[in-house]
Amino acid sequence: MTEKTDSRFTKGADAVLSIPPNSSIPIAYHPLFGPHNDLLLLELDEKLLPDVINQRVSLRGQSDEDAVLCTQSKTYAIKFVGTSNSVFLVPPSDQFSVNEEGEDPESNAASVLKVAPGTMELVEVAPRIDKLKLLLSENTYKFDEVNEIYDSGLYQWDDLTDRVQASDEELRSALRVLSAVEINGYWRIIDQKYMDRILSMLINNSLLNDWSLNALNEDEVVESLVKDGFSRVIAHHCLEVYGSKTNGESVWGLDEKRVCVHFARGILSSFGKMKMESFMEEWARKVPGGMVVSFEMLEGEVLVEKLGIQSWVYGFSVSSLPSDPANRFSRLFQERSKWDWKDLHPYIRDLSVPGLTSDGLLLKYTRRTQPTANSEPVFTAR
Amino acid sequence: MEIKLKCSCGEASCPEWAIIELQGVVEVQPAFQERLRNLQIGILCRPSSQENYTFTVGYHELSGSKIPMKKPLLVLKKKIIKSDMEIDQKDDDDDDLNSSRVELEVIGIIRQRILFKTRPKALITKPQSPVKKKKATASVAIVEKQT
């Protein structure tokens, strides 16, 4: 006895949302009413809708992690918010439709498919970058690596998006910060000793060929390194890590600070703690001619310890520290129980937590004391 | 793993769903528990040209209004695609994201709800309805045993 639904009458969600004044509609249980656990409600900022419609949004996370939602550029934690209200979900008439006899086609009506227990909400969060660091450190690219033999601990882009809870943009920028490079489809971090070897070779070749470190021709440099047994990708990567393109098309200049920091790291990693004077001497001796070292370059790279009248310096690189604030601060206070602002700042300025300013971070993770009004504030653990 | 959020709605034409929200729980009388299909819950009425509504459930009347959602809600449908490739597949729990691929598809959007946030008012006349509304608070949990 099913008749065609009369177009004068509206059904489903439409009927609920467009009840004419002075009229009413019956609300019933849908023929398919049930728990429908596969139906989820996700609260979303209006500005994210275009990303969803254009299918640029995905959920990322391993089964032991809480899933995050990633747009192209941002990462959001997903929180389930329950409600004690009865939230009746009414689908439009053309979804979940069944040919039902009981329904009167000659009237407006709507039916409830599910009572929603709550909704999922999004909270912007910092990408979980430490995991990326961990993954890429499993198997760094070393000098003696025999090509084409791939063992474990190698990750392609898709493997990274599978494992790291970060948006594409955040992932790319983190790969840049880590100086990772794509070799034969796999994202790798180059072993520090290997980088040292190729940089020294590059500087050496420049000396031999009388090239200026401020105007290196890309093709010449890469060819010379390839002749010395380095791969083209690595040779190019070396220019990217220690230099930047000058105005010219393929002319590179080495970055004084990055090169000097590289040598400082090398010295401190082989000597450990050094007297300030000996370190500065050694450092100035190691860097290529024409480059001038200055201690300010080592902000966030070294710490100075005063023992009696002697100043000692040792390596403590911000890049080796956790990138989530709680772990970062706990590592910092493990290193030192008290921090001057001047010392602390280089170790926290890269932290970014959505919705929290750097003052907010300090407030949350440190205790600030200022013995007298004009003395420098000191930060201790909370 | 990565789960793409699929959306085949196209530009701004996502099917709109509706929410009718009320405090407490609507309880179906035991005799009707097994026969929910098409069972009437109540009558939703718009008495004037304003966006005010009443919802009559059993002999309780709720009043509320239509309000836009602060942020839209997407209705997502989770689809589990069993993969034959996996050998050590455990199929003890179909909510488990381990063994099979999951897809999420946007099937609707909710922009407005009709919210009844007041306590129900008891109507004097007593319509025969198989559905009663039970408030969490004892005072309004009017006994309605005899049918």
Give an overview of the whole structure.
The complex is a heterodimer of chains A (382) and B (147). Helices cover 34% and strands 24% of the residues of chain A. Chain A has 382 residues and is of the alpha+beta class. Chain A has four domains: 12-125, no CATH class; 130-189, no CATH class; 192-254; 286-381, Aspartate Aminotransferase, domain 1, CATH 3.90.1150. Chain A is elongated. Chain A contains 13 helices and 18 strands. In chain A, the strands form six sheets. In chain A, strands 3-4-5-7 form a four-stranded antiparallel β-sheet. In chain A, strands 10-12-11 form a three-stranded antiparallel β-sheet. By secondary structure, chain B is mainly β. Helix content of chain B is 0%, strand content 50%. Chain B is built from no helices and nine strands. Chain B has strands spanning 2-7, 16-22, 25-28, 40-46, 52-57, 60-81, 101-116, 121-122, 131-134. Chain B is flat, with a radius of gyration of 21 Å. The relative contact order of chain B is 0.33. Mean pLDDT of chain B is 77; it is low at 86-98 and 135-147. The interface between A and B is large, with 65 and 64 residues. β3 (58-60) of chain A pairs antiparallel with β1 of chain B, so a sheet runs across the interface. Chain B: One of its GO terms (biological process) is mitotic sister chromatid cohesion. Chain B: This is Chromosome transmission fidelity protein 8. Chain B: InterPro entries: Ctf8. Chain B: One of its GO terms (cellular component) is Ctf18 RFC-like complex. Chain B: Pfam families: Ctf8 (PF09696). Chain A: Keywords: DNA replication.
Quick description:
With 382 residues, chain A is of the alpha+beta class. Chain A has 13 helices and 18 strands. Chain A has 4 domains: 12-125, no CATH class; 130-189, no CATH class; 192-254; 286-381, Aspartate Aminotransferase, domain 1 (Alpha-Beta Complex), CATH 3.90.1150.
